[in-house]
Amino acid sequence: MYRAYKTEIDPSKKQEKIINMTIGVCRFIYNFYISYNKKIYETSGKFVSGESFSKWLNNDYIPSNPEKSWIKEVSSKAVKKSIMNADSAFRGFFNKKTKFPRYKKKKDQGVKMYFVKTDDKSKIQYERHKIKIPTIGFVKFKEKGYIPQNKIIRSGTVSQKAGRYYVSAIIDDEKDHSFKEKNEGIGIDLGINNFAVCSNIKEPFKNINKTKKVKGLEKYLKRQQRKLSRKYESLKKRNKIKKGEATKQNIQKQVRKVQVTHQKLNNIRENHVNQVINEIVKTKPSHITIEDLNVKGMMKNRHLSKAIQGQKFYEFRNKLKYKCKIHKIELRIVDRFYPSSKLCSKCGCLNKNLKLKDRIYK
After folding, report:
1. Using one digit for the tens of pLDDT, what is the confidence trace for 72-103?
2. Which residues contact 296 (CB under 8 A, 6 or more apart)?
3. Cα(87)–Cα(91) distance, integer angstroms
4. C-alpha torsion angle, residues 280, 281, 286, 288 (rounded to 10)
């Protein structure tokens, strides 16, 4: 079984430059592959696979365009992975599972630098306080000892968010994490007023978005976004002529402030989700039952969309599924159209006229 560990790293200025350059090249290649496929499809109605595009890029395009030789200056594994990511995005679209692939933007920070073992004999070196990443060298961990020692790292990614760098490593984990003795199964009801109500835990898990810290950060984020908007408007009025470079630098500083605040809010919410899942799994249930929520449909309600987005229901379900797989707990998904709220738990009476405002009925 494979397990993923993500932790923050502390690269040097030289290493930061290599990481940023690699991520930039991967983003360019991802977008280039989408544009190339669009042109081919419009002219011949065919789809170029990731393997074919990679061969054409290395054998034809780069040799005939020497000015693009900087593509070869970064890790070839990272470039190949970005091509295959775009390839899987196209296949998901053709199978009607996802929308048409979108271009990656620099400010979205969704592109990662991929690294992998070169062969079965070699291994990615790492210690308690550092890891050796191909083309970069040893990079220090900010959190020492987080990744278990004496394990084999199969592959990993390096990502950048709001000026901070993270490494995610996938390792072999043969240890059995299942519980020897399990208690009775539990049911979980996700909501807006309370994040989660569990059948075997008396106190419901609170909504983290109602805390003072999150509310304060959201107010601060609004102010910073207004400042950023005013800077863009000011730049438009000046027509990018007077003090253009200085203004651009100030805009980048303000963009970083907005990114940092978004990251803080995301970290708080993600940490809350992790804590709730750990508390649930600690009860050692034989099975966990949750409802198959239509989050996409719920987001269409403009009065509740912000509250639903802040609760991270989709992330909660994915992480709970992952935890259940590790500890070998059965996860039961109840059909979204099953009238669980309208059914009496004792006599089974169905109240078809139950409304959302009705919390209790007899």
Report:
1. 999 899 999 999 999 999 999 988 888 889 99
2. none
3. 6
4. 50
